[in-house]
């Protein structure tokens, strides 16, 4: 399953910039030649949708490897940002208590999968990604 572009980050430019910063920290890097972020992913639909939002041209890597999308720091001046209304009830002043951590079997995947339960709210933002409680 591929992750789709998280439309919730289109609430405002500040949230979108925070998402781009977080994505760059995790799966990208700052260009050393010009003022831009280079985002790397094998998820072509995700990068294609993000390219539309930031007004960038995107050509997927045809050799099956990860593709790159250059997001210029001047992207807001292109006026392609489509602000969308996504209601959120943030409780930013509250601490989250971890009551229990259990490892779950992830098959042949090279990562550890953890289960979680959210209480009292069923969702929250992590670096601009809307996280929901698994059902």
What's the topology here?
Layout: H1 13-27, E1 28-30, E2 36-41, H2 44-54, E3 67-72, E4 103-104, E5 113-114, E6 123-126, E7 129-132
Antiparallel strand pairs: 1-2, 2-3, 4-5, 6-7
Order of helical and strand elements: HEEHEEEEE
Radius of gyration, CA atoms, in whole angstroms? 17 Å
Contiguous uncertain segments of 5+ residues: none
Number of helices: 2
Name the overall outline.
Answer: globular
Mean pLDDT: 81
* Residue share in helix: 10-25%
Could you tell me how far the N terminus lies from the C terminus, measured between alpha carbons in angstroms? 17 Å
Secondary structure: number of strands: 7
Model description:
It is globular, with a radius of gyration of 17 Å. The strands form three sheets. A three-stranded antiparallel β-sheet has the order 1-2-3. A two-stranded antiparallel sheet has the order 4-5. The protein has a two-stranded antiparallel sheet with strand order 6-7. It has helices at 13-27, 44-54, and strands at residues 28-30, 36-41, 67-72, 103-104, 113-114, 123-126, 129-132. The chain has 135 residues and is α+β, with helices and mostly antiparallel strands. The protein is 19% helix and 20% strand. The protein has a domain at 7-78.
